[in-house]
Amino acid sequence: MGAMSSSELSRLQVCLRRLLGSPGLTVNAPPRAGLSVELAVNGEVVGTVHRDEDEGEVSYAIHMTVLEEDLPPAK
């Protein structure tokens, strides 16, 4: 996994906002080296973004966790 530049974070944010239809989505740089890039919606962190480079090709993986307590009540 590699570190992401501010330009890369910005480009990824534009792409994810478009793909997911969420203008409130932000891709936030980690506060210090060694921590994960955070994915947030309307200020609430919903996951992490990881960068992978293999044979010159770069890809991004998003890990998102949804707590059962955040789900609407069962019917």
Question: Would you summarize the structure shown here?
Answer:
This protein has 75 residues and is α+β, with helices and mostly antiparallel strands. It is built from 1 helix and 4 strands; from the N terminus they run H-E-E-E-E.
Topology of this protein?
Blueprint: H1 6-20, E1 25-28, E2 37-41, E3 44-54, E4 57-64
Pfam families: DUF3126
InterPro entries: DUF3126
Protein name: DUF3126 domain-containing protein
Structure commentary:
By secondary structure, the protein is of the alpha+beta class. It has one domain (6-68). It is 20% helix and 37% strand. It is built from one helix and four strands. It has one helix at 6-20; strands spanning 25-28, 37-41, 44-54, 57-64. It has a four-stranded antiparallel β-sheet with strand order 1-2-3-4. Strand 3 (44-54) and strand 4 (57-64) form a beta hairpin. It is globular, with a radius of gyration of 14 Å. The chain starts with 5 loop residues before the first helix and ends in an 11-residue tail after the last strand. The mean pLDDT is 93.
Largest sheet: 4 strands, antiparallel
Average per-residue pLDDT, rounded, comes to 93
Terminal CA distance: 42 Å
Number of strands: 4
Helical fraction equals: 10-25%
Low-pLDDT segments, ≥5 res: none
Main-sheet strand order equals 1-2-3-4
- The secondary-structure class comes to alpha+beta
The number of domains: 1
Q: What share of residues are in beta strands?
A: 35-45%
User: What's the Cα radius of gyration?
Assistant: 14 Å
What would you call the shape? Answer: globular
Count helical runs.
1
Q: Please provide the ordered H/E string of secondary-structure elements.
A: HEEEE
InterPro entries: DUF3126 (IPR021473)
Protein name: DUF3126 domain-containing protein
Organism: Komagataeibacter sucrofermentans
